[in-house]
Amino acid sequence: MAPSYRPPWLVFFRETPVFSVRLQKLRSDPSCRELRNSEASFSFLTYAYLCRVQLFYSSRIENSRIILNEEETRHAISVLRKVPGDVLHVIDGKGNLFKALINKVNKKETELEIQETKTYPKPEKEIHLVVAPTKNMDRMEWLLEKSIEIGLSSLSFIRCEHSERKQVNMERLEKIALAACKQSLTWHFPELNDIVPFKNYLQSVHPMQGFIAVCKDAESVLNKQTSLKEQVHLMIGPEGDFTEDEYMLAKSAGWIGLSLGNKRLRTETAALAGVVGLNFL
């Protein structure tokens, strides 16, 4: 039987199991030049991922320059000990990944010169999650992190009649979202929306396809037969569930009652189960 084909990068990784040795060979060993430069088997993204590069974020992209803010500068210069001439990989949250050289450094910001740019399209399916936050905010932070890793376009918070939490710390959530995007190689950052009353949300948002998770009398069940559109909204209620009036109000606005199974789930568990199901159907 003829041996099956193994791509060069797979052969290399199996023959070089120690990460530090593998990284050094990739960067400097002449025998790896073809592997480094092969567009087919070793794309720019693959190289960045396999070498475990540190990703940085910047919203200030000006022509061929990137400006890192004070926090990102502190991490690059003080923690990682980067110096002018070193290469950094930067994302902008809009689908672009930049390979850039450090040009100028000071305590407040770092200026980079762009060497390469790779742009990634938005996901074909957009998942918009709407949640009544729990009293324990740690659960919502966990939900945000894991939802981004799986695939999330936006997260909005609502205040319902049974809600125990009336406000959320958006600045902290944005930092958690940024860290999750870097870790999971999410090129398009999800939109985060501050908490609003349930009725206000229904009046301001008219989804292409909206599901509201309910414990009983659901019109639809999330399974392989569920027909999904390109943009899907999923609404998850508070720990005391939606009231009957809230549910009927959502239905009158076009939202479809959805069952996530026969288990009684915590708010964050139901939300994550919905995100997973909608992403992989």
Description:
This protein is an alpha/beta fold and 281 residues long. It has two domains: 9-119, Hypothetical PUA domain-like, domain 1 (Ribosomal Protein L25, Chain P, Beta Barrel); 126-280, Alpha/beta knot (3-Layer(aba) Sandwich), CATH 3.40.1280. It contains ten helices and 13 strands. It has helices at 8-15, 19-28, 33-37, 44-50, 70-79, 137-150, 170-184, 198-204, 244-252, 267-280, and strands at 55-57, 60-62, 65-68, 87-91, 96-105, 110-119, 126-131, 154-159, 191-197, 210-213, 220-221, 231-236, 256-259. The protein has a seven-stranded parallel sheet with strand order 9-8-7-12-10-13-11, with helices on both faces. A six-stranded mixed sheet has the order 1-4-5-6-3-2. Strand 7, helix 6 (137-150) and strand 8 form a beta-alpha-beta unit. Helix 6 (137-150) runs parallel beside helix 7 (170-184) and helix 6 (137-150) packs parallel to helix 10 (267-280). The longest helix has 15 residues, at 170-184. It is elongated and about 65 Å long. 26% of the residues are buried.
Layout of secondary structure:
Elements: H1 8-15, H2 19-28, H3 33-37, H4 44-50, E1 55-57, E2 60-62, E3 65-68, H5 70-79, E4 87-91, E5 96-105, E6 110-119, E7 126-131, H6 137-150, E8 154-159, H7 170-184, E9 191-197, H8 198-204, E10 210-213, E11 220-221, E12 231-236, H9 244-252, E13 256-259, H10 267-280
pLDDT averaged residue by residue: 85
As for the CATH topology of the largest domain, it is Alpha/beta knot
Task: Count structural domains.
Answer: 2
Secondary structure: helix percent: 25-40%
Sheet/helix structural class: alpha/beta
Radius of gyration: 23 Å
- Secondary-structure element string: HHHHEEEHEEEEHEHEHEEEHEH
CATH class of the largest domain: Alpha Beta
Distance between the termini: 38 Å
Quickly count the helices: 10
Low-confidence stretches: none
Number of strands: 13
* CATH superfamily (homologous) name of the largest domain: SPOUT methyltransferase, trefoil knot domain
CATH architecture descriptor name of the largest domain:
3-Layer(aba) Sandwich
Note the beta-strand portion. 15-25%
Strand sequence of the main sheet, in spatial order?
9-8-7-12-10-13-11
Largest sheet: 7 strands, parallel
